[in-house]
Amino acid sequence: MDLKPNFRPSFFFSFLIFFFFLQKPDLGSASNPKCISTERQALLTFKQSLTDPSGLLSSWSGLDCCKWRGVRCDRRTSHVIKIDLRNPNQTLRPYDYYGEFKKGGLGGKIDPSLTRLKYLSYLDLSSNDFNFLAIPEFIGRIVSLRYLNLSFTSLSGEVPPSFGNLSKLESLDLYAQTFSDDGLTAYTLHASNLGWLSGLSSSLTYLNLGFVNLSGASDTWVEDFSRLSKLKELHLYNSELNKLHLSFSLSSSANLKLLEVLDLSRNSFNSPIPNWLFDLTNLRKLYIQQVLLYSSIPSGFKKLKLLETLDLSDNTLGLEIPAVLGYLPRLKYLDLSVNSFRSQIHSFLDALSKNKENSLVSLDLSSNSMYGTLPESLGALRNLQILDLSDNSFTGPIPSSVGNMASLKELVLYTNMFSGAIPQSLGDISTLNKLILSFNKLEGRIPKRLKFKDPSIYAGNDLLCGKPLPKKCPRKQ
Ligand SMILES: *[C@@H]1O[C@H](CO)[C@@H](O)[C@H](O)[C@H]1NC(C)=O
Ligand SMILES: *[C@@H]1O[C@H](CO)[C@@H](O)[C@H](O)[C@H]1NC(C)=O
Ligand SMILES: *[C@@H]1O[C@H](CO)[C@@H](O)[C@H](O)[C@H]1NC(C)=O
Ligand SMILES: *[C@@H]1O[C@H](CO)[C@@H](O)[C@H](O)[C@H]1NC(C)=O
Questions:
Q1: Mutation test of ligand 3: which of 162, 169, 198 has the most ligand atoms closer than 8 Å to its C-beta?
Q2: Is the CB of 177 inside a 6 Å radius of any atom of ligand 2?
Q3: Which residue from 55, 128, 175, 210 has the fewest beta carbons nearer than 10 Å?
């Protein structure tokens, strides 16, 4: 009877030990999952139809497919969950030689045996060269996928509507610029009907259809993408879109409300900036470069309080640069270069200098028709690192307050009508490493105190390059 109280703790203790030993081998096998043989067969079949000049798949033999290069199995169930066969030479893209790129990669055919991997959640075949192989419809049957990267693969044809069955997909990258035997190619993929996107509406957070020809979907694209309620990044760079719908309304629905990054650059909208953009109040980065935008910058931008990067360069936007942009609290990069802005800079710069939260790092207003003088408030831009006002019609002296711009690295003012003496206060800016003042009516010398690591200093029309000489110094005209 006395034993009982003693028995219990020791029983409990040995139970713990027993439990520990029971767990131990299990833990061991969990960190070394063993391949399931039917999945191994599927992988071998997949391998057989690929070409592999660089031996990327040389480890794909033996029993334990979980140890093969690029393959990962679930620790608990041993199912293949990840295949990452991205060409390791993909970092050479896109401007290096095709041959080097191709040497590192896979080619051939993509076998439907992949659909036998019922737990595959991650598939990356990017930067390999499938030489215009039709993009496989059966990928839409791997419904366990969460991540699919087929970017830069020279797959071709219509993006299969079966992709709409990938209802768990969080990230889809079909960026379609790539190399072929003739050099850089693009637009091998097209999507004329984007209805299938609705199948991804509650999962997709990242979508890249750059260089995918969407011209056939131009009439409905805004509506189609607006169904993606979880989307955070949408990249439609160079996607042959030719319509920007002005009357569309996003405000009534929750859709696209999470969008943080939107790239619509290099399409042919031929349109003013639409107001529905200002309902995307989570936007941090907005790129609408070179799309034939015209008219002026709407005051609606004041609603985009989280905006950090705004690139509207290379359009024909005009009139003035509105003060609302100066008041955006998080704006770091503003590129309005190559447009038709024809105004003074005062109201915008004054707004910036009054904005206590102003965190602007880079301002590019080059190649517009801006005129008038630069205000002393310029000196208040203490976070600004890059200021490019070149190729405008600014007049008057460079204000001496410029010396207060304590973070300035690049000051580019060439081809204007600045006059007077080069301010000696420039010598106070210890961070300055690029200064281009050529093609103005400035007088005097560059302050001696300025020391340039990478000097490209021009003043007046005289070349004043420091040493060592930069490779490209425009000659005195
Ligand atoms: C990448 O390209 C280089 C040639 O630049 C080649 O020697 C190398 O084998 C390639 N890498 C792989 C993993 O094949
Ligand atoms: C897809 O792969 C390419 C490299 O081939 C990479 O640059 C890109 O970031 C990947 N996309 C995503 C969404 O991870
Ligand atoms: C999506 O899956 C369903 C059910 O499995 C199937 O009937 C349908 O054909 C698939 N849709 C496409 C577009 O492949
Ligand atoms: C895109 O597709 C349309 C037809 O749908 C075609 O007229 C156009 O030439 C294509 N664009 C490119 C760059 O291939």
A1: 162
A2: no
A3: 55
Look at strands 441-443 and 417-421 and give their pairing: parallel
Sign of the CA dihedral running 82, 88, 94, 98: negative
Q: Choose which residue among 103, 106, 128, 179 to substitute to test ligand 1 binding: the one with the highest number of ligand atoms within 8 A of its C-beta.
A: 103
Domains of the chain, residue spans = 373-477
pLDDT in tens, 319-373: 999 999 999 999 999 999 999 999 999 999 999 989 988 899 999 999 999 999 9
How far apart are the CA of 138 and the centre of ligand 3, in A? Answer: 10
92-101: long-range contacts at Cβ-Cβ below 8 A with a sequence spacing of 24 or more?
Answer: 93/127, 93/152, 94/152, 94/177, 94/178, 94/179, 94/184, 98/179, 98/180, 98/181, 98/183, 101/127, 101/129, 101/179
Q: Taking 50 as the threshold, does the pLDDT of residue 198 lie above it?
A: yes
- In short, whether 233's Cβ falls inside 6 Å of ligand 4 is no
Kindly give the number of the ligand 1 atom that is closest to the alpha carbon of 55: 14
The confidence score (pLDDT) of residue 452 equals 66
Instruction: Please tell me the distance between residue 379's alpha carbon and the centre of ligand 3 in angstroms.
Output: 62
d(CA 229, CA 435): 46
The confidence score (pLDDT) of residue 451 equals 72
The pLDDT value recorded for residue 468 is 31
Is any atom of ligand 1 closer than 6 Å to the C-beta of 54? yes
- Find the range with the poorest average confidence among 70-84, 142-156, 157-171, 452-466: 452-466
The answer to whether 451 touches 473, Cβ cutoff 8 Å, is: no
Residue with the nearest Cα to atom 6 of ligand 3?
165
Q: Angle 212-103-121 (CA atoms, 0-180°, nearest 5)?
A: 55
